[in-house]
Hints:
- The protein is mainly α.
- The chain is built from seven helices and no strands.
Amino acid sequence: MFHYWGVVLVLLSWLAGAYLVSRWRNADLPTLSKHGASSPNAHLFFAGSLTTLGSLFYWWLIGWFAPHLQLGISFVALITVAIGCQILAGIVPDTAGLSRRVHRIAAYAMAVTYLPLSVIIICSGLPFITRLFCILLTLYMAITFTFLVLLRWAQKKFL
């Protein structure tokens, strides 16, 4: 069961995101962070979900995933930064002023950290079909990230 824990946690995080968007529905809010900052209750739910699910996911990554794939210290260090930034982005809401600045720095750092993590996973001893799937997902992340960084109108719409 423990090796399926990561899939369960990812599905739970998707359900939490879907609940957040549907419970605090607002078409003018393009990101989960903005939905999470839309009211005090939304922020509690957002922060609680990211902190709880992020911590459990980190525990699974360090306890089973990294040792199973023999990912090494670089993966552990990067995932520690990524999950730490995720928790910080969850706790600090995307509202005006210093809070928005801290939230965005943490969210961007988390997003940027996922790209080298993907490369580390691809370079591990994965079966061919799994490696191919990871390569496709990494390309999608890289293209999406580049798209959002380079196009100003995309930043306003999606970030």
